[in-house]
Amino acid sequence: MDEEGTRREAIAMLQRGIAITEICTKLGRTRRWLSKWRGRFAAEGPAGLRGRSRAPRRSPRATPERVVRAVLAARDRLARRRGRQRFAGSGADAVAWELELAGIRPMPARRTIERILERAGRTARPTTTAGERSGGPYPYPPAGAPGDLQETDLVGPRHLRTGRGPVRFFDFHTVDVAGGGIATEQRADKSAESFCGHLVDRAWPRLGLPRIWQVDNESAIAGFPAAGRIFTQPVRLALLLGVEVRFIPMGEPGRNADVESFNALWQKRVLRRFDTPGLGRLARVSGRFERWFMDERPHPKLSVAAHGTRFPGALLASLDGQLRKIPRGFSLDAYRDAAGELRLPLARGRISWVRRVAEDGELQIIDHRLRLRRAANEYVIATLATGRGELTVQLDGRVIASYRHPVREKVIRPVVGRGR
Question: How do 149-162 and 212-215 pair as beta strands?
Answer without folding.
Answer: parallel
